[in-house]
Amino acid sequence: MAMDKETRRALMVKGLERYRKERDFFKFLSDTLALMPDEEMQLSKEVTDITVDRYDTIIRCAEEDKPFVAGYFNAAPEVYTAMDLPWYLIMQTPFLAASAPYLMEDVDAAEAMGLGTDWCTACRLSLYYIEAGLSPPPTCMIGLLHPCDAATMLHQAVVRNEKWRGIPMFCTDPPYFEDQRGIDYFANELKKMVAFIEENTGRKLDLDRLREVVKESNKQYELWAEYAQLRRAVPCPQGWGMGGPQCFAVSQIFQVGQPRGTDWFRRLVSITEKKVKEGRGVIPKEKIRYFWFDLLPFGWCFELMPWLEQEWGAVMVMEMFGFTPYTPVDTRNEDTIFKGLAKRNLYESPMVRQARGIADYFASDIARVVKDYKVDCVIWPGHMGHKDGSASTGIMREICNELKVPYLHIGLDLFDRRYTTPEECKDKLSKFFGAMGLG
Amino acid sequence: MAIYDAYLTKIAAYVADLRRKGRPIREMDCPPGVDRLLDGLPVRVGPGANPGIILRGDTFAEMGNPDAGSCAFLFWTDNPALVREGRITLIGPDIPESPGASLPFGQVLIMAGPQLTEKDHQTLEHTQFVADRIEGYMIRSTSQLIWSRVSRDVAQRGFGFETLGRALMAVFKQEVPKVEAMEILFVTSSREDLGPLDDIGAQVRKIYKSLLAADWKARGFDAYVCSYGGDCRTCPDEPVCDEIKEVIKIRKQKDVAPEASAG
Question: Which residues of A touch B139 (CB under 8 A)?
């Protein structure tokens, strides 16, 4: 049954209250970054400005009763851009650390609500925000049935939520194996998704416009790949503070197939090329080049990542979201566009690529990154929600043994610093670096 | 007969077909040993030979950009007599003839050695991504594709496909000593010419994936599917999972207890 107007209005008022606070948090970050003249800081500022703009757009749509979608980066977001349809990522708040000022309170409130603590904190928080009415209810929702059990559970819960069950939801069905049959199947799923969005928002997808957007997004991915090569330089021109997370946010969430995003990538490549030519690293003396094979610990990264650089001279040369296995989408016709998008979203999107499977991606990605980026050690943080990856830790260790590169599995919560505290992580990392003769 | 031997015939038929169509084909024969392969090369080969990265502005030619077309695969045989040791076949323009070009790129590496087995295939796959081992040559770090750059500097010194082929042969023979003979096919003629090669590559890759799954399984890992069909009752690790659940339960009780007593 569709959501009645009164319920929607009441939910929107409450949902926007928190949403505006998140917007203000990013505005504060932007204003702070504006005071820093460094060109990399200005690049970061552009990302936070883009983020603020997106928040404003969603707020405006909600206030003016215009359609907007809640969805995912790995469900062909080029489609949303082509349909001129604003959208937000359901897991946006934990992913962007947008709840930073009250993250711990939110985690505790989610637990008090009865959401299991063995459940991925990002998924748990996302459900909490919906259950507690802290997310603006979208016109319709694109759900996610992969890569992990927690994502599926989140959507099972949302679709049964007393208030949100009135919001139409569509989930693309992801095949497991990587082959042409899988690509064909998922391309068809994406077409069904388009039909669903058209039906529920009143917007129509124009193929020429989609082609234009995909061409622009191809440019972004090409520039991103160029940037990723620059990080192979010794010393590495940038560390944890700039790179994969921003590239991901721009190309797959906030500026998908849009010229402003492409310009951001151009600036990123130009600034980084300059540093590589000058032989400038992110820190004065790079001692350890590590591959952080997961998301950053968004809930508490400032308590760990700078310490790694300062205490050990350890530079994160690559991480899971920064690796660029993307192939350009062939824009010749509708068929090639949807198959290209299917491939990108099934087999190339970060985390989904490795976690849904096949498990060999964990091994093959490590093998490429270790060789290409001259990596001294691989760190699998072992986020408590990434059980899929932790089930493959044996494979990762095995491949690292073959490559003769030290491997560390920490076991932490990327969002809740209390699970394994930053001090415990530092202790573990120090013992690891020491025992392996690194640094 | 090794698992990939049939593909030697398919590759030969592919080359013969392009020859019939009038494509320019060059064949070069290189000496067998690593030292002789490297002797006289205009570039250094080995770990650290290409210490930096090749920037866009320093690029003489690019090969395998997905827009231009890219197809790369490798296979092996345990019968060296089936491989023309040291043969490099080039179909299409060579690097020195292509300044500023973005060439379509096909690369087929065929290795032979009586000691080679299925277990070596993964190592061979990893070896083809040469990282910093060939001066002036950089394969971009992206999965599956060979998308590479040749620097202006080494192009001026005469870096061509013979250089690349000899360097690759040396790298493989150094890193996988079981490789006794090697033959290479490069295709740069057109994107269309890569189509039939890609069909052969798809079959080879499918076999490789099955070998890989079997290899992981032999090492005790289910890389592709749960052997127990998702039925935990038949999984030998079930007691471990049960114990973890018990620990969580105890931990939760501990967390609740102080509140209960305080109340």
Answer: 372
